[in-house]
Amino acid sequence: MTAPKAPTNEGPGLPDVPEVFPPTLREVMLRPRWLAMLGLCLVVAGVFAWLGQWQLGRALDTSATTPGETETVEPIDQVVQPGAYLNAPLVGQKAKVSGKFVPEDFLVVDDRLNDGVPGYWVTGQFRVDAATPTSIAVAVGWAPTALKAQDAASTLAAQDPQTMTLTGRLISDEGPKVPPRDDPKAITSMSTAALLSRWHDIQGLDVYRPYMTAAAPLGGLDAIASPRPADGGGLNWLNLFYAAEWAVFAGFAFYLWYRLAKDAWEKEVEEMQDAAAAASCPDEDPESHR
Fold this sequence. Notes:
33% of the residues lie in helices and 19% in strands.
């Protein structure tokens, strides 16, 4: 008895071509190349997940959510460090700091409301008593007109700097804004970065990111209306949004791996089908079988 022959594509006018089955998507995904790619995606997704967890921790920071806790005056170095962002529950925290103003750096900030009344702030560079040069931007008072604000700034600049202890509220940096075209030198937001670009003697200077609104006005200015912040749960929606973004990025890393593996599988199947068609009909154009 003779052994059975393997199935072939024999037929009238057809060559003897062994039947070849294309790989499944699972078989392609289990190849070393795609397993290595999956490992890389796991590392990337892990980094994204860690960043999302970090943002979530900042969003849910409840380190100062006790009602009225912001009204306790704390030394500034117990609230925030130079260069660090002010956590959401600490916005409006009363703090105290010792040092002296830099006379040349009293500047006017436009578009400041005081109990709903538009006006101007006078701000100064307050050089903190510290082991290394450190400064914080301090809003020292409000004026209803630009002229009065400029006069107060000139008066303060003419005074000899005296060491003092300031008390006020710490507020998050507003970020710079584009000045109006008719006054390109105007400062239109309480931005530490914008003020720093105008300050003197800043070589090697550490700077606090938040600014302070002085509780007691200087230079004959009006006190800045800076009420107690509303009690809340310490939820920072911006950081919560960032945490969700990182979760999406982590998921996209796996989707990218799946999409690339599937594309490679589809291409391989298509090439095998073209090769089979060409072998079955050697005298015909393979493109006609697509």
